[in-house]
Amino acid sequence: MIEVLLLTTAGALPPVVVTGGLRNAPLLDVPSAVGVLDAEALARSGPGAQLSEALLRLPGVWAADRGNAAQDLQLSVRGFGARASFGVRGLRLFVDGLPATAPDGSGAVGHFPLDAAAQLELLRGPFSALHGVHSGGVLSLRTRAPQPGPTRWQAEAWAQSDDQQQLRLQAEGGADASPWRLGLAHWRSAGQRPQAKAERSLLDARWDWTPGWSARLNLHSQPAQDPLGLTRAQWQADPESTAAAALAFHSRKTLQQQQLGVAGGWNDWQLRAWASARQVRQWQAIPVATQAPAAHPGGVIDLDRRQVGADLRHEGPGWTVGVQLDAQDEQRRGFENFVGPALGVTGALRRDERNTAFNGEVYAQSEHRLTDGLALHAGLRLGQLRVASRDRFLANGDDGGRQRTPTALPALGLVGQLGAGTRGFASLGQARETPTLAELAYRPDGSAGLNTGLKAQRSRQGEAGLKHRDGVWAWEAVAFAADTADEIVSARNSGGRAAFANAGRTRRQGLELQAQGPLVQGWRFALAATALSARVRQPYAVCGAPPCASAALTVAAGARLPGVPARALRLDLESPAAAPWQAGLTLSGRSRLWVDERNSDAAPGTTLLAAWARWRVDPDTTLTLRADNLADRRHVASVIVNEANGRFFEPGPGRRLSLQLQHRSPR
């Protein structure tokens, strides 16, 4: 796990120390592209209601708030994860070293405690594979350590002009040997469109005790309506409209999640252990007639998932070895979403299965100094993912089965000193993205059984770059490329069963630039820019609109991968923080977003401007005023990739004003 520690130095950029799984090391000496945001940068990015506010300050990542809390954040790194229509795929997610990614590769970020964040870190490139499969990138949030002493608290209230509100409360204290922190947060939104109301409640607690041990508890609840996407005609006519099907079926989702974790170490050993539970109930807007075939799983999803795991590692001088075990057990049922004429209710049972996934891995990483200014880094992760499904609803055939996928993920890198505060680095590696349980559920030929012929997609990655940090200026420039084979694509969508297959080759390559430094009169800038070419290299066939019994549409060589922009930029300008007043401007822009693999349509590119001002009323009270989308531009926030009914577009909000008040108890 990469952990980034920011060491504060007054009047200068803080030096950054990275622990890449073997020992503390300066960020400059890591052979990877790494983006870091500290707590102040996170606070200046927005009110903290959505993780996407901050992530766009980093290059290589595309993060979009869908305006639809039922489908979570849209997140991809260098094009990996872009095909996900809900949740997060293709990436590894961590909070304080505890995984937010299940063994089958599905993940979510809605439970990230942003108000307790000490730093947010994004690792890109070949060395991310050392964290396991589904590692097109590694996103890690580290919470701040609780401070001992008398109980102190901090309260925050935030309101936005589009009828969003958030309340957050933090408290901490305790003895020197056992400090604690407790955070409570509640967010609600009336929705910018009909059938888009949502709430999110979060409890996050941490207890530390010597020597170096900590325990975390995270409880997350999120009921949300689902307004679905819009067709191009609907978006152009009225971007604040909602699909009629969403209203008719009252499409919605409820989510409950609980996670408990422990981390610590003794001598040269470190241990992390975790257990979590997740319950999802979702009522979809699937027409009654569509559910008529016997094979259809119904329009209501009922999922109960359990996950347990542990990671044990041993560190020596310049090396680390470890083992990780992670198990997932889920009960998935499906029901009709109607009873007689009543729509949007739970009806007859149509699916009942138990699914399991178990991932066992061993890993090693080492560093060898070739000369005083040149270091060689090497790593290897070996594992096997085993998945199984037992069908308990046999009226439509037995869809059970088993699959085993072995993985071997090597990485090799060099770091060389080019001058004071400047390094050059290069790395190569291999990665795998195994199919999720949902992607394995059905076979492309329509026969019963688990889709055991679906293989993991394989990629070879490389990157090279320069990075500099001298206490005043900091920048990083990176060129990267990733060739992928056996890309997972849609092969059949008929009778309510979506099946997937492996297809041709793709290439993702591009340039990334991140920089920050001084301007005039104490103002500073922060820049993140990405140029990405993500294209198909070998033509393949995909499924069209349902019902689709076979993949009959051709994706031509040269087609762009959907859901990710070819160009993205974020520029932040910020005034000095020493005065009672501080202000900032944010310019963000992206190119168009293709909606499907055939590039049949695209959301147009857009550029947005935001401004904020913060007034420190007294040492313990802060008032912040913010305006987003100042020009009130009509735009698409995200696209639903390969949406079967052509409802690809999720509209972004117009001009929004927000007010945030924060107060903490005197120190």
Automatic annotation (TrEMBL):
It holds the Pfam family TonB_dep_Rec_b-barrel. Residues 226-630 form the TonB-dependent receptor-like beta-barrel domain. Keywords: Cell outer membrane, Ion transport, Iron, Iron transport, Membrane, Receptor, TonB box, Transmembrane, Transmembrane beta strand, Transport. Gene3D superfamilies: TonB-dependent receptor, beta-barrel domain, TonB-dependent receptor, plug domain. Its main location: membrane. It is found in: Cell outer membrane. It is a multi-pass membrane protein. One of its GO terms (biological process) is iron ion transport. PROSITE patterns: TONB_DEPENDENT_REC_3. Residues 27-135 form the TonB-dependent receptor plug domain. GO terms for cellular component: cell outer membrane. The keyword Membrane applies. PANTHER family: FERRICHROME IRON RECEPTOR-RELATED, TONB-DEPENDENT OUTER MEMBRANE RECEPTOR. Belongs to the TonB-dependent receptor family. This is TonB-dependent receptor.
